[in-house]
């Protein structure tokens, strides 16, 4: 290769593939989950997501991802007990959350809370990630978010109840009231749907950090940072913003045309791997129909239909379909969550997949260290600062 200044690249550089955004690169071997993009199929440990959604509780799915099989009744009871016992946060973590400005995005509070937990609870979180740590971290995610959610409103955090499952505990700690079944049940299904998703950006981040021999809280702190971006997990509140901006079904065409004319991306559509509809979108659409108001569902449905038609017209051959984020917005909003808690709620689920991937990585570790293609100049000569 010839550089811009005429120098030749080193002859020891093999001619490696360099797809943009690592598209199509296999970065790890996993038995956890897989996205079959052409078919629009998602599998957890051999189970199609349709087998599990609405049938397995979130904690059963967590056991499945961590241990490789569905739990027996007593194993599930044991896991629920462990999660219940470990939900409370160390006081110092609450103090760190208290010091954050009320205007901080909740994902930043979660990232800070997990990082603080790793620094404060060093006996629990040593340098070798294990299943107990995965359970402890999963147990504490709802509490970190709920503490911030309440403190920013001038309220005190709520002491979690040991008998609650994850969905119940999250809503109870957020709102300080016994959650209604019509709210925690859809949330439980949502949590099962989002628990893992192949080699997505945040999972990759967690595995890269774990591959260096770092600790679990560091790996998960990094993953939270990756999930926050709107091209990954940060889209659902933007879907809600979009639907609120559209306002009514008769404004759908004009709004979408304006957005696409400006070159904006329509949030909740498109995916790196799915070239068919995301199977989770299909399940969430059904849930949104049940959970949200008829007007909001009608607006969502009309927006989805027209967005797909327009994307297919304007981007022929791109195969853009509805992704998981689009109907997550309607479901989470119906459960009572404000928009800025949508991505954090995604994290309450995905921490299971992240931790399962970290355990899988450390069980058969090799440092993840790719190459880069060097395109900078070579052979420059140092010039002393006085003469620059
Ligand atoms: N709206 C409009 N155009 C789109 C959209 C969209 N939502 N998604 C992709 N495109 C277009 C791009 O403009 C591009 O067109 P061009 O080549 O003519 O310029 C083409 O489709 C391919 O886009 P890429 O960015 O190369 O696709 P990539 O695989 O890198 O991106 C992504 C996937 C980031 C999800 C993209 O579809 C997107 O930005 N969607 C909107 C944000 C969103 O919904 N994110 C949540 C993803 S789901 C998840 O991670 C949980």
Give a verbal description of the structure.
The chain has 388 residues and is mainly α. The chain contains 16 helices and three strands. The protein has a three-stranded antiparallel sheet with strand order 1-2-3. A hairpin with a 4-residue loop joins strand 1 and strand 2 (41-44). Helix 8 crosses helix 16 (342-363). It is globular, with a radius of gyration of 23 Å. The two termini are 30 Å apart. 45% of the residues are buried. Residues 1-9 have low confidence and may be disordered. The protein binds acetyl coenzyme *A. Residues 21, 230-233, 235, 265-272, 311, 315, 318, 320, 323-325 line the site of acetyl coenzyme *A.
Protein traits:
388 residues; 16 helices; mainly alpha; 3 strands; three-stranded antiparallel sheet; 3% strand; binds acetyl coenzyme *A
Task: Summarize the entry for a quick read.
The protein is built from 16 helices and 3 strands.
Write the layout of secondary structure elements.
Blueprint: E1 33-36, E2 41-44, E3 47-48, H1 49-52, H2 58-67, H3 73-85, H4 91-98, H5 106-120, H6 131-151, H7 166-175, H8 181-193, H9 201-211, H10 216-227, H11 236-246, H12 252-261, H13 279-291, H14 294-314, H15 324-334, H16 342-363
Antiparallel strand pairs: 1-2, 2-3
Helix pairs in contact: 2-8, 2-16, 3-6, 4-5, 4-6, 5-6, 5-10, 6-7, 6-16, 7-8, 8-13, 8-15, 8-16, 9-10, 9-16, 10-16, 11-15, 12-14, 13-15
The structure holds acetyl coenzyme *A.
């Amino acid at each position: 290769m010839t550089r811009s200044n005429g120098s030749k690249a080193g002859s020891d550089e093999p001619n490696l593939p360099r797809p943009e955004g690592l598209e199509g690169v296999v970065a790890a071997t996993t038995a956890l989950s897989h996205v079959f993009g052409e078919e629009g199929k998602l599998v957890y440990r051999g189970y199609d997501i349709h087998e599990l959604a609405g049938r397995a509780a979130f904690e059963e799915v967590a056991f499945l991802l961590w241990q490789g099989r569905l739990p027996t009744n007593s194993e599930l009871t044991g896991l629920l007990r462990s999660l219940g016992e470990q939900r409370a946060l160390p006081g110092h973590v609450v103090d760190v959350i208290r010091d954050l400005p009320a205007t901080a995005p909740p994902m930043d509070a979660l990232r800070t809370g997990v990082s603080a937990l790793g620094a404060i609870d060093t006996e629990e979180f040593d340098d070798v990630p294990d299943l107990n740590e995965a359970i402890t971290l999963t147990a504490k995610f709802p509490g970190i978010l709920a503490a911030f959610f309440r403190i920013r409103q001038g309220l005190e955090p709520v002491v979690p109840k040991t008998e609650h499952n994850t969905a119940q505990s999250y809503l109870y700690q957020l709102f300080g009231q016994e959650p209604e079944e019509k709210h925690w049940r859809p949330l439980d299904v949502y949590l099962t749907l989002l628990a893992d998703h192949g080699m997505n950006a945040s999972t990759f981040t967690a595995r890269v950090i774990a591959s260096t021999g770092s600790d679990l809280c560091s790996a998960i702190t990094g993953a939270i940072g990756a999930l926050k971006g709107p091209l990954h997990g940060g889209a659902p509140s933007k879907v809600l913003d979009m639907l609120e901006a559209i306002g009514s079904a008769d404004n759908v065409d004009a709004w979408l045309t304006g957005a696409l004319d400006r070159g904006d991306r329509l949030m909740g559509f498109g995916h790196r791997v799915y070239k068919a509809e995301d199977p989770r979108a299909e399940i969430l659409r059904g849930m949104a129909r049940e959970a949200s108001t008829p007007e909001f569902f009608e607006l969502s449905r009309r927006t989805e239909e027209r967005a797909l038609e327009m994307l297919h017209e304007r981007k022929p051959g791109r195969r853009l379909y509805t992704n998981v984020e689009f109907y997550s917005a309607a479901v989470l909003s119906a459960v009572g969550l404000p928009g800025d808690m949508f991505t954090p709620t995604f994290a309450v689920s995905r921490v299971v997949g992240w931790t399962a991937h970290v355990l899988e990585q450390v069980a058969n570790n090799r440092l993840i260290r790719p190459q880069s293609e060097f395109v900078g100049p070579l052979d420059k000569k140092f010039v002393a600062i006085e003469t620059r």
